[in-house]
Amino acid sequence: MTEFQVSLTGLHARNEKTIQATQDWERNRINEVTLKSCVDEDCDALVGLQKRSGVEYVTDGQITLAWQDLFRPVSSGFEGLEPGPMVRWFNTNTFFYTPVVKGEISSNGRALSKAVEQRFAGQGSSLKVILPDPLTFAELAEDRHYGSKEKLLFAYADAIRLELQRLSSLGVKYVQFSAPSLVYRLKRRALSRSDLKQVGESVRASLKGVKLRSGYYPFFGDASPYLPDLFDDIPTDDVGVDLTQTDEASLPKTSKGVIAGIADARTTYLEDAGALAERLEAVEERTGAKTITVAPSADLRFIPRVSADQKLELLARVRARVGRSAKGGARR
Amino acid sequence: MKPFPTQEIGSLPKFGWRTKPFRLMALTDDDLASAREWGERLQVEGRADLYRLLAKRYSFTEEEKKTIVDFSLLYAIRMCETAGQGVAKEPGLDLVWSGEQARTEMYETPVSSIGGFEFVGRVRSFDNKYWRMASIRGPPKYKENYHEEELVFTQAHTERVPKVPVTDAITIMAWSDNNYYTGRWADRKGLSPAKRGFSARREFTLELAKIIRRVISELIGKGVREVQIDIPAATQYQTEDDIKLVSEAFNETTKGLGATFSVHSCFPPSTGYGILFPHLLEMKKCERFSLEYGNRDTFERGLDPGSRVGFEDLKLFKEYGYQRELGVGVIHIHTDTLPTLEVVRDRVLYSAKVTGLAPEKLYVNPDCGLRTRRPEIAQKMLDLVVGGAELARRRSG
Domain A3-65+123-132+159-327 is of which CATH architecture? Predict the structure, then answer.
């Protein structure tokens, strides 16, 4: 029997009160304490919504100023890195500061734990953190030190491992590697099998000795050029596909969990829950996965907060539909 | 045109005395002092009337608010016209605009004036910067010409050549929530998920292009000759189909219109502007591409590729045999850290060197609009544009 879960997969939208607070703080109209109180309240509300929606691994939404972009805790907190030029984040109207590699990348294992809202670890919730995967880091970073993508992949992976070990000791239960660079290739060719295996090895290196459930989520592109190898070569417990870009008919049988990015994270248009449930049933049929995580196609920071929360609620409704169907034994 | 002519890109910062009356906030002593300081510095005509009006501090009538906006347009025009004073022998930009002072900003103004949109909330662009996202909930419809009044005012108050910036259809589509067209294409059978998404974007974009063409056509009817089509989102959607759509939308927008059209874009992905080629060159009526480069450059002097790393991407134009005009962004607009005049000069000279274009075809501008900077920084940036271009002129001539 397939277990259906629900999860967020990226940075979430800030609510209007937090947005205003960040702007007021920048203009010296409020102090840092007031800002923090707004952000904390925002995180609490989002975690509360995830719990009510039956989310198994909750995220803190990465809405604090530590996560101005997905790289920021890394580019600001690791030795050898610093934030550089501002560049567009794939095909969105959002931007990130390029991590510039100026020396040997190293970490004291405490950069991410400062950025993650650890108060949500425990207290009845299993906390999930979301990080750039080694490939996305290596492809988007400006390397002025290693001169080799392979070295960069593994240097990042090694630094991340220390961070994950620390997060695990603090009660975090899940790590997701966000991997848009794998599938967002455009004029560039898809990675060769040997390159994919190398990415898999870098992920393995980052997880060595780490006791967390793990997921690998390539989004913003069609995963079919990598199927079925993606499920074999990436050593995480779950592997995801962006189903707004990938046809579910291309999915293979797998013994891994599947992250099914089924709700379009780029629009407030609310899909029909029945239609999404049908697609999920097709995913279940194709993959035979023991766990399917019902997820948005990407971060929910690309639409306003109210709509982002509605998408999460939609995912919960979709899960309830397929969950009911599964309990009734209709498909087994 | 002279060698290395200069232009702004569009927006300039708004003063507190311009924004607060609309937010129902009382003006402070600092706001009044700033109106005076800049009024004197720019020698704005009739400024004493503004000072008297602002002394009221709050509860401005609609008519008074309009007067305040008109003065903000004047301040912006004078800022463009006097840029470079103190650093250049010939101050002033060659192509000027009124700083988009009459607009909320480049996205919100058009979507507020085109039917079919609803604002749904703010979305983060980067750090603590956000835009107010509008959602398209039905077919877009022309309601009014949202730039005519500011054009007429600007033309009446400058002897220089005004260049009106107009936000294009791709950008409005890309920054909006495509709710209506996503729904229209959601159930189309026989299309891949990605193709359905693209079809929704294309239909939305081309409907918008028709409306924008009408807006521009009316502006041309009012006498404007320089029209800058702003496409900051040109590099947002990056599939082959989407890149072709950027040119298709531009051609659709300018079809049958007679003016000098330029295109501005900025902040491409880390791979640079290469993704736009060769389709960018299929924009039939585009005389000039004004692009951002300063953001990625070093602050070192020099005409070598290492010092001018941010401008290496310009080689693309030479590779494609480009012979029309170019506007090169020489000032990074998201920082208060400024290059020296000599560095700006070197950026200009290096641009000429790698493109092989005649200096008359190479415009000098900031990377993008300056609305996020404080007025004093924006002024310094414009000074650098004018002063740096003049130094380059001397060196090359």
Answer: Alpha-Beta Barrel (3.20)
